[in-house]
Amino acid sequence: LKAYFIKRKKIYKYIFIKTDYMQKTIQKQLNDFFRDITAIGGLVASLLLILLFVSSQLLMPLVAGSLIIASIIILIRIFYFKDRPKKEMHTNFVERIDASSFPSMHTARIFFLAILFSVYFANRYLTILCIIIAVLVSYSRIYLKKHDWIDVLGGVAVGVATYFLIAWIFF
User: Fold this and answer.
1) Per residue in 23-39, pLDDT tens?
2) Could you give the residue ranges of the DSSP H alpha helices within 91-123?
3) Dist. CA 68–CA 62, nearest whole Å
């Protein structure tokens, strides 16, 4: 009977170790996936899109929209500081703006781009893809503990408002 329980304990320990390893592996893959997804809403991706459309009618709306989003969010962060869920240290004014959480600049950029491309290209499949990417980028900001829901919603509001301003100016 004692041998039975010892063998059972070893089996449970093996299962626990395997399960723990699988959970850590899945967690790492999710972290990598959302880290890569969040980059789509980043500055580098925006600059690459601007370069991609350099000889297109979308060049000026893309540049103006990117500048307006950055300006609005920097102004908000200058006057209203909100710590990120995973706090970031800051020692000077520029770091303080970057360490502020509200609103999410990644979310603002991606929603602006999603609406702009959806309306400009008027393709159902592209619109669905843009919506999926915008939602994934927004969720990635929460998953990575860079923002909470209110920050993301603030970013959506800035991105949508910027689109309507750009549409009013350029189209």
Assistant:
1) 888 889 999 999 999 99
2) 93-99, 105-121
3) 10
